[in-house]
Amino acid sequence: MKRGAMLLPMMLSVAVVTSALAVIRTKHENRALVNELEKLRGEQTRLDMEWAQLQLEEATLSHNARVDRIAREQLGMTEPRDYVIIGDRP
Amino acid sequence: MSGARPNPVAEPVAQWRRWLVLGLLSLGAATVVGRAFQLQVLERDFLRQEGNKRHIRTMLIPAHRGAITDRRGEPLALSAPVESLWAVPSALLDSPQHVTALAKLLNKNPRAFEKFLTQRKDRKFVYISDPLPPADAQRALSLKAPGVFSEPAYARYYPAGEVAGQIVGFTGRDGDGLEGIEKAQETLLSGKAGSRRVIRDRQGRVVDDTLESVAAASGKDVQLTIDLRIQYLAYRELKAAVAENKAKGGLIVVADSTTGEILAVASQPGFNPNNPPERRSSGTRNRAIVDSFEPGSTVKPLLVAQALELGVYQPTSMIDTTPGTYKVGALTVRDVHPQGVVDLAKMLAKSSNVGAAKVGLTIGAESVWSGYQRFGLGEPVYSGFPGESNPLLRHYSEWGQIATATASYGYGLSVNALHLVRAYAALANDGLMPHLRLVQNEQATPPQRAVSAQTARNVRKMLEGVVSPDGTGIRAAIPGYRVSAKTGTVRKVSETGGYHGDKHQSVFIGMVPAEHPRLVGLVMIDEPGAGAYYGGLVAGPVFSRVMQGAARQLQIPPDDMPPPPPRTMAQPGTASPVQLAQHGTLPPPSPEQAR
Questions:
Q1: % of chain A exceeding 70 in pLDDT
Q2: What percent of chain B is predicted at pLDDT more than 70?
Q3: 3-state secondary structure of B292
Q4: B282 is catalytic
Q5: In sequence order, what are the beta bridge partners of B506?
Q6: Average pLDDT, chain A
Q7: Chain B interface, best mutation among A35, A47, A56, A78, by max B CB count within 10 A
Q8: Which of B218, B297, B352, B544 is catalytic?
Q9: How far is CA B356 from CA B335, B346, B360, in A?
Q10: In this structure, is residue B559 part of a structural domain?
């Protein structure tokens, strides 16, 4: 047999094995990435939830009725309605 | 030639070798066919079941419902995730200690909870809690009670509560808008759920994404023209006034007269949309938009504007209202306080019915009608709010003498509060009537001209007399601002026909500041029951307080600062001498004064 005759099949079989390994590797990477994507989606949902909760909390704390009550009762404030004469001597 | 080499003689191959090869091949073929038969026919069910466990699934991506915010971005309605707990009663009842623990966690009486479950023993699905915050639901699930599961969902929260309840409305259990803006803007808010095809393993994890997906379209946020600060102020003052006057209800509207943006709409009785049982009460009615009423004296300025516009009357024209009564056919028009001979300004300030009837009859039914028509009293407001009431303004050809006279002082036609606000916005905006709207960024229709700028200014000037010591609305004065306004005290129609002697609607409508108005406000108190019922006395003070607060928050400069009396000091925060000097009412402070 010619020496060169075996070279092509050998190279082809090596290429087949290499590409098979590459397929396995890509598949694995794909799974890993899908997994990560899933995790990040979960994280996004969780953060969305938290954001909604925080907005609600902020709105509850800054509700006008609450601010109004605290300003009047605890801090003794009033609305500037009119001139108030605070003394007859400057 | 190479013929020298002898041809090798082909030795005959033994027959058995051929049969062996053929036999092996057919055995192989038989094995393949047999295996196929086994898989396709014998184990088909089992394999299909196995396959289903890691099937390609279509997962739903839920769409988030958009938020509703006020003009400054404060949330009025928000979706937040919640979890509802549900149970299979028979499974849960098998472990009594879990029933007790769960009842405690859900703030329920253990006995009652057990009874609740026993009654529903045959069912496979029973909600055992209201929608809970996710953290609470997780705590309940961590008990690991058998047959208890949670179902995620979105719940709608209304941070502003009853203050904006009637505008925002609410959604039903499955998240579709049922009332108010939630209903009107449903298509924008709701969004569209997406989907994606994935391969999942038997634990439900996504193993592979087939990339075939339809992205979820989240609902858009809707921004209203409401300013929550003014809305709160308006709601608070209205509620206090309704309680103080022992009234049946009331409403208030504040709008920006130049842009037509509604800054506050509130009505009483109210309701809290966060509290589902209240959602069936009459408080859900946004009476400012949904209910109509007879405008009464508040249309007189519109009549005067039309009379001036036609040139039949001049601002200086005098009208004889003696002796305080005026017979038109079978009708006798009466003034509460006879005024004698008055000019148009005084007629408005004293709200003379006789004067208005005379003006109306002089210009004629058609002119009265077309005047009202120009101020939009015959056209819907198109505010974009569901259930907006239509105005009732009959055609002038159906009016007789009596109808013309009564229409001149605001009876025999009905409008909602927004109609009056829009008409007064036209007076405030130098004759240009804006399109009133509730939703920001909506396609704005250009304003329509109702009357000429000069007429609008003249009427505004006359209306300043209402809020003067001589007028009916002095209680509505706002320190530092000149106010153009009109009072109205409307007798209500009784169920038997005719008018009630003692049931009134007290109306007050006005604009601030009188010279270049920025705000139009309307206050109506329905059936005040604590004695006073005149518009100026009941609704006027509410107008004053709300508009003063609104002007302060919108930083509208005062146009009428009297020089402070000497030897007094203004409290910090009201107005500094420098501001006063800018308005030309006070010389720059001398060193002595400044001290």
A1: 84
A2: 89
A3: coil
A4: no
A5: B489, B525
A6: 84
A7: A56
A8: B297
A9: 10, 11, 6
A10: no
| pLDDT at residue B242 is higher than 60 | yes
Q: Does A38 touch chain B (CB under 8 A)?
A: yes
Range B443-465 burial, b when 16+ CB lie within 10 A, else e: eeeebbebbeeebbbbbbebbbb
Interhelix angle B401-408/B353-363, rounded to 10 degrees, is: 130
Q: Best interface-test mutation with A: which of B207, B548, B571 has the largest number of A CBs within 10 A?
A: B571
Summarised one tens digit per residue, pLDDT across range B244-277 is 999 998 999 999 999 999 999 999 888 888 887 7
At B268-279, the pLDDT tens digits run 888 888 887 777
Answer yes or no: is pLDDT of B547 > 90: yes
Domain span at residue B281 reads 228-553
User: Strand (E) positions, B128-174?
Assistant: 148-157
Q: Is the pLDDT higher at B110 or at B260?
A: B260
Residues of B in contact with A85 (CB under 8 A): 568-569
- Cβ–Cβ < 8 Å for B215, B418: no
Please tell me whether residues B255 and B236 are part of one structural domain.
Answer: yes
Conformation bin of residue B357: beta by default, left when phi > 0, alpha when psi is -120 to 50: alpha
pLDDT of residue A83: 59
Cα dihedral value B434, B439, B445, B451, nearest 10 = -10
**Of B409 and B84, more confident:** B409
Find chain A residues with C-beta within 8 A of B81's C-beta: 48-49, 52
For residue B126, what is the domain's CATH number?
Answer: 3.90.1310.10
Chain B residues with CB under 8 Å of a chain A CB are: 64, 74-75, 78-81, 133-134, 157, 159-161, 163, 205-209, 228-229, 232-233, 236, 479, 545, 548-549, 552, 564, 567-571, 573-574, 595
The model's pTM: 0.77
Helices (H), B410-511: 417-428, 453-463
Is residue B440's pLDDT more than 90? no
Task: For residue range B389-420, list pLDDT tens digits in order.
Answer: 888 888 888 888 888 999 999 888 899 999 99
List helix spans (H) across B2-88. 15-37, 44-53
Q: CB of A3 within 8 Å of any CB in chain B?
A: no
In this structure, is residue B30 part of a structural domain?
no
Q: Are B574 and B535 contained in the same domain? A: no
B335 in the same domain as B249? yes
Q: What mean pLDDT is predicted for residues B575-586?
A: 43
Optimal mutation site among B201, B568, B580, B595, interface A, most CBs of chain A within 10 A: B568
Q: Cα separation of B392 and B369, whole Å? A: 12
- B28 domain residue, yes or no: no
Number of domains into which chain B is organized: 4
Residue B35 lies in a domain: no
Q: What is the pLDDT of residue B253?
A: 95
Q: What are phi and psi of B443, to 5 degrees?
A: -55, 115
Confirm whether the ipTM is greater than 0.90.
Answer: no
**What's the pLDDT at B8?**
67
For chain A, how many residues are written?
90
Task: Return the amino acid letter for B290.
Answer: V
